[in-house]
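Our preliminary data section would be incomplete without showing what the modeling component actually yields. Below, a chain of 151 amino acids is followed by its predicted structure, encoded as tokens that our downstream tools consume directly.
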Amino acid sequence: MPRHESGRTPARLQGRATWLVSRAYLRSSGLLGAGFESHGGGLRSYHYRLLAALEEWGPASQADLGRKTGIDRSDVTAALTRLESIDLVERSADPAHKRRNIVTITPAGVERLLELDKVIDGIQEEFLAPLTPAQRRQFITLLTRLTDAQP
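Predicted structure:
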């Protein structure tokens, strides 16, 4: 039986966009995980996504946050519990719907978001390091077109 060489790609996969995107995803995911592990202070990229959404879009219900950020509803609840426990967000009952919580980012949450922006910037730099500035712009443009084409 032929010995498998680690890191080699079967010829029929080479050059296939879906294979390459999945490999790039694994690399970016690994960099995000390592970056947040080292510099996130116990937070993860999904915490960053929630803080960014609240800062940009304003207070929202937990369900709306889940829909708008693409995070599962039960995961949103757990992540918000963590963020609330360290005073980065506040939850309060929606006066119009007593069973619904409205989430608001706190001033400490905005400050932490700005710190996490620097972590994300470093990860982006590392991920895109093999590309020139012009290639980076083109890569982002092409990825945006691909993701915007989703149903």
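Residues 17-39 form the longest helix (23 residues). The first strand starts at residue 60 and ends at 61. Preliminary results of this kind motivate Aim 1 of the renewal.
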